[in-house]
Specification:
Layout (H helix, E strand, L loop, with lengths): L9 E7 L4 H19 L5 H21 L4 E8 L2 E8 L20 H8 L2 E6 L5 E7 L8
Antiparallel strand pairs: 1-2, 2-3, 3-5, 4-5
């Protein structure tokens, strides 16, 4: 049985694809934040900032390295803000050296691992994967 005094989780889900997928992911995180305010359990600004970066990066990688759409699930609870990105590729994300010129990236996966208190990569029944990242309910401001 759940404690009636504990806020109920706030959740959102969407499908993302193409060049606009990262922007769609950021909009969905912002909608989750708006829903949380309406539920009486607002998301701290630093958690929102971290979630925007993490969701954008995970969706960018899913669109770039897997074929087809990706699914984004976000949820806010007393445990933190959970982000799940599901795509069709079974290949887990991997870090690579960052490009100091900024031309080819290499900074996203380390950023996700730095901002999230937990990152898991889980296979799906369909042969793809879900990358789960949890932003803790209290994080230092992103600058």
């Amino acid at each position: 049985m759940t404690d009636p005094a504990e806020p109920r989780p706030v959740r959102r889900r969407c499908e993302c694809e193409g060049d606009s997928a990262p922007a769609r992911a950021r909009r969905e995180v912002r909608r989750l934040v708006d829903d949380a305010v309406l539920s009486g359990d607002p998301v701290p600004a630093a958690v929102e900032d971290a979630a925007l970066l993490v969701a954008s990066e995970l969706v960018t990688n899913a669109v770039k390295y897997a074929s087809g759409r990706c699914g984004l699930d976000v949820g806010w609870s007393p445990h933190g803000l959970d982000i799940d990105v599901t795509d069709s590729s079974p290949t887990p994300p991997r870090g690579r050296p960052g490009d100091p010129t900024g031309a080819t990236g290499g900074y996203g996966w380390p950023l996700v691992q730095c901002l999230a208190s937990r990152v898991d990569v889980l296979p799906t029944r369909e042969g793809g994967k879900t990358v789960h990242a949890r932003i803790p309910p209290s994080v230092p401001p992103v600058s």
